[in-house]
Fold these 2 entries.
Entry 1:
Amino acid sequence: MARYLLKRVLGALVVLLVLSAVVYLIFYALPGNPAQLVCGPKTCQADQLHRIEVGLGLDQPIWLQYWHFLVGIVAGRTYSGGPEVIHCAAPCLGYSYQTGEPVTGLLLDRLPVSLSLIVGGFVIWVTVGVALGVLSALRRGRAVDRIATGLTLAGNSTPVFLVGLLLLIVFCVYLRWLPFPGYQALTVNPLLWAQNLILPWVALSVVSAAVYTRLTRTSMLETLSEDHIRTFRAYGLPERRVIGRHALRGALTPLITIGTIDLATSLTGTTLTESLFGLPGLGQLLVSSVRNIDLPVVVGVTLLAGAVIVVANAAADVLYSVADRRVALA
Amino acid sequence: MTTEALAADEIGPPAPVPASTGARAVWRKLRRERAAMVGLAVVVLLILVAVAAPLLTAIEGQDYTTYHDTLLNSARGGVPTGDLGGIGGAHWLGVEPQTGRDLFARVVYGARVSLAVAISATVLQLLIGLAVGLTAGLAGRIADGVLSRFTDLILAFPSLIFSIALLGIVPQSFPRPVLLVLVLALFGWAGTARIARGQALTLKTRDYVAAARLAGGGGFRLARREILPGLAAPVITYAALMVPGNIIAEAGLSFLGVGINPPTPSWGQMLSAATTWFGGDPMYVFVPGVLLFVTVLSFTLLGDGLRNALDPRSTNLSRRAE
């Protein structure tokens, strides 16, 4: 087990390293002159540009810049652009060209918003998806199954921003049950927090619940046809117990992997939902930084997204092997 | 299924496959899937509409760029006058708020962009996926190790985030639809590669492939003549379900403002514009929204039907269910 873990962690580190190199090199090599971007719309004199370049280390070869960037993440780094010296503590991802704020701080500010969105959404879509999937597997071919299949298909075919727009039209314009959402921190007012997030949660859940319904249904049907379930039934175990204790366990194990990875992907994959509902999360940070070609922020968000996904992939493997003892760790 | 699809690609004589999976048999099975046939009909219709966009807008007598200020109610902030977003004989699906541009012309031209980008991206994803997957499966252990790791890396990549960043940072002078196709293809081939590799590894051990190998065929020729035909069924199924994914992806990226640029209309871009108008003019959401939904749904139904028709196992399962 220890050896497997070590191997998995090392593998994840390699992937992260490759990812960071690709992201860094592509984004810093692409858009021309980063120093000009720091200057913003105002025109900088040549000597000003040069000072910025030296201060940010942009005059060095790109692989050296990348090396300093990596060191900054692990150990922090010091910028000396002229008279002032700025120390950026680890994990240092640089400073926003647009606002001058440290990127790490920006990411941490936005994190609670994205977390609020995905954790709430996750609870809804897993609950609804699994319930509907189990139900339609147990009533295969009946009305419930057909309705669930139809809903799955519809949910799968509707982009999240379309679901969101329809929800807004129904609940904010016609019924006027809810005000147009705006983010409220959980710590300030939990009730307002939930009230403002309910539509984004539902919008996010429609598409994902559809995926989980289908997966659960397939997995449940497969488990129900396995030999050990037949054996339990033959022993005369009550049906409720066969399903509740044995079938469900087997059917839901594969979902652990998918759930873990989904949660990780959603952290930054909710860009569309955040954008539609005006939630100031990580996804929106990315969109606005892309619009302003704010390179350090773009690289920061992309790397964070990648890191979370890589870690979740490794975690999913370990979790799965714990939940399903038939899986040997190789 | 092989014969027809492969003849189209000029891939050569099909490998010996059971007669029941021939193209005609698949078509017979597909025809029994009512949902798939509805999907197919709508898909064909949509492609015709997209191709005939200039003709259709000429018949309507409108185009997608002309502003019609007179059709807007300035007292209500510029929403279209008349019911249902100004639907009528002159403007079949009404007009856009604020600009008064013809919605029918915009969604029809939007269909062009949407379908062209999604289908081109799918083709490119398939080509890359097949090339990588077949090489990994057939070219020995070292190639397999490297390519499989690479495929895993792409699958674990935060592709949406990366696509947004890439699309935003590539200079605007680069043609956007082409860029969209490239970015979608860059992250969308890994699934096909996995399937192709798995199939190649299985098929490699089959007797007929071994026979071909003994007869002196190898490398590219072996891959093309013996392995590819066996791959057609799973890959076509997968491809049919990649198209709707690409349509949604294109719409999403355009919604975020990093996809298709104005003045070229696209559904995602229209829905993005509609986010400020859904209160006063819900038709502006419904028209592109319904079209997007119907398009994705039709492709999905067709894809599901193809899967049932091509995979004997899943056909049995669904039949048992009924």
Entry 2:
Amino acid sequence: MQSVRIIPCLDVDQGRVVKGVNFINIRDAGDPVELAKIYDQAGADEIVFLDITASSDGRSTMIDVVENTAKEVFIPLTVGGGVRSVEDARKLLRAGADKVSINTAAIERPELVSEISAEFGAQCVVVAIDARRCDTSSNVLNKEGVYAWEVFTHGGREPTGIGAIDWAKRASELGAGELLVTSMDRDGTAQGYDIELLQEMSQNVAIPLIASGGVGSIDHLIEGAISGKADALLAATIFHFGIISIAEVKKALKENGVSVRPLQDDH
Amino acid sequence: MIGVLDYGIGNLASAYKALVKVGGDAKLIASSESLDGFDGLVLPGVGAFGSCVNAIREVGFDKLIMSAVEKEIPFLGICIGMQVLFENSQEDPLAEGLGLFKGSIEKITGDVKLPQMQWNELDFEKGRTSELLKGIGAQPWVYFVHSYAAVPDTNRDLDLKVVATCQYGNEVVAMVEKNQIYGVQFHPEKSGKVGLKLLSNFVELCEANS
């Protein structure tokens, strides 16, 4: 059966977990290894670490954090932020990451997606897309060359002039195994995922889709799975600040007919 | 000691670290050395069938695996590491598998996204038990990442048994075994407590063999 994964995302800056609101206000929330362990025990299906500043100032990602996490946490681990070459990917995978997420570097040099995919397999390449609704009266995709969402890079600061749906299709063709789609408009707002964005994405690409940006309640997660047709639901703040537990999310999804992996203690 | 075959592909660290976590005396093997001192072998794998099987032959691991099988040393193939034990794969029709198991690897069918990249529930074949499943309850959930799956030819290979399957599009083979050779399509090293228990059972099996 097809099941939906619940993924807490830990934004990491210099080895510490932080979470920005709209990527600006950064608040310390703990040790990534400990938090990953807690989420594993709480029933998370996967963990994502994003090195939020790496892409902006060229700092290399946190091999040590990955090494230490991989000794303690035995569910899939995705690491993103500052992956710019096959060598960067190799270091993270050897340290114990299962997938690497690429964002800015893939836009700058799309062949990077193919290179990592050819070297390690498509299953370990996640292309992260930060999408923002265009300031246009027309939200119709590709109507007269206008796109509804634009891709932003460098932690959401730089516009690219590239349409998000077009880029998703291209990334999929280049060998991405999965897409992590963040709505810049919704991120940090607690107003829910951008469902239209998810719908457009799932209609246009065949690879698994991770929904991200904007979760403020359990209903938002249910909406992402059912209306947005996302294969995985990513959230940060609501989990980090204990607003909703993973157990509550899974219970609610199940009650709404969405298949999820039961908590390990249920066995 | 349990050897984890390192042929330069994929994420070997995870399988190695998980074996260490469950108390296994694991060691990465990067070249075709002697099997002296090894009570078990693990062949992890991600990536494509052809490149994996070529890399395995390049390092000379095909011979090492054959000799482990002859010596009846417990052997565990994970994901592509299980698939390469079959004869061939639709993924790379020209590449020749190791042929320890009769049958082929075919693309997953049905109206489902590929790869299957998710947790799924195992269904155990009726009346079939495995040493690797000791202490694991009915219908455990494990983590899969694959687009191709094994189609064992148990008519030609009477000792080969399908232990577990999962539903994805159609029925997908998740676990096979033949004597002391075990193959799992899912990733026990990424399947939380259930996966660690399976690996711990494998470690026990190896220790009993030493």
